[in-house]
């Protein structure tokens, strides 16, 4: 073979020129069984794998190309097979195809690196998971296998400060104490890198594994062990309990000063709140929220639920200390309603604090995980949009990963900071009942408080608001008027906020949407460029077309319609581009018109303070749905469950036990993953597609339960 001919051949392999390759092979100008470069050892299959040309690889292998050919030792890619190169460059679909064609999964490079080393080197978490699932686990390749330098995959991930890969390797059982040829372990590398997030992650892993401080004779590792004792589970739980109690302490001290003067009590409250805020940020929050921003860590800490619990305690104390003896006789009916709803509110609050929002159990069977990953690969959807990197689960529709439970939550609605818990499939109905009870309790309390103040001299109330009067009221009925007045203001604010949440929740339920669905639509409208970053349009880790996808699956993909096929896998990129361009142009035009009348900053903050900013999201959501209706876009963006108000209400309030009494279905909450959707029981743990509005028959994948959606 001439140099010109071989260069033409290599160039065709790199560019995916199937026509030129077919001509060269069929005319016997190129022998694919002996096509290696004498200087580098690179073959046509190597070049195709390096450039992610799946169809070229298939053509070469069908004509006898050597699948495990290695490059020369002197080359930069020393002694690498096409599978090594595909793994190094993170071409997941190419890797999966080569493994399917019986490429050697345990071959080593010149440095003794295996596929897991190369996957970690790519810093692609999906690549690491895929290698573990399809190489390490089925072929019994040790996760701690060392290269010629003694480096393990975990040590390499720590050196690169790739915390996601570190989590994955620890989850699979990587050993922190294996030493390389320099007598350094993963713990020592972590300590020398001074990466706080990784050090805390390793320390917590050690504490959870050993339940106490480990003892190892490696002195540099003591840094990590010190952190392990600091960030132990025991200290984390103690920090959370202190965070929960802090608001009660602050309100108690403020109430003491508020007995003399309301303004002084309010000033003391803000001073103590500021001090508590500093303590939380500096000491408590880092113990259990090391991987979050300070603002997110605060909202997801028990501080807000502690504040809500402190409010309930204040209302209870005020009722028994001040209002009960005075108001029961004059307003007995309202007093009974208040006491009953307050008691039920306490019960519901405690129940929701520890409730399971619908956590999807983590799968421990690698065969099932491999099956799900294979399905996603065949559909061109193996990416972090459809696959959870934390739980190794295929993400069902309407689910979301929870930072609280570290699980995927089925039919995720939102995170409630009042409860320090997520609201999902199993506790959403209880949450709505809790809101109604809380609102009734607050309104009745406000009514009783106003009645109490009506019986007191107005001059005494005004006197408590003077910042210069510190005399204690002589009349017993005037004691603590300042604190009572502040509590009344807070109760009024809380009732407005809760009522707004109730209306918003009722609206979203009637539309068959969750708050998570509505916010997803709002984000699409808010930043229209995000449409082009969705994984079914663009992905950083692969570029696959319809023919390559068909090759991987072994048969054409069957979806809703041929239009959706073209939109999803890119057979007609121009078609989907036109649809997205039409959608984005409409959104952009509307946003330009709205920008002429911007909302003021103070008004926006005031609406957010009372919770009314959510209605802006709802309004945009309605406009977004109207825009989507005329665009043929992939169903995976979001197909709103517009099955009708009555139908959606029934789906929410009734359980899926169709043979039970309707009152029992109404009064009980969901106990498992089966719930109604469009009037039919569906498994929310395996919800891959929403039921079609005009057709109540659901397409299934033929599993035993018959409820698994495509």
From TrEMBL:
Coarse class of the protein's main subcellular location: membrane
Membrane topology: Multi-pass membrane protein
Catalytic reactions on record: L-cysteinyl-[protein] + hexadecanoyl-CoA = S-hexadecanoyl-L-cysteinyl-[protein] + CoA
ANK repeat windows: 40-72, 78-110, 149-181
Annotated Pfam families: Ank_2, DHHC
Cellular compartment(s): Membrane
Keyword list, A-Z: Acyltransferase, ANK repeat, Lipoprotein, Membrane, Palmitate, Repeat, Transferase, Transmembrane, Transmembrane helix
A GO term for molecular function: protein-cysteine S-palmitoyltransferase activity
Span of domain Palmitoyltransferase DHHC: 382-515
Annotated protein name in UniProt: Palmitoyltransferase
Protein source organism: Maudiozyma saulgeensis
Organism ancestry: Eukaryota, Fungi, Dikarya, Ascomycota, Saccharomycotina
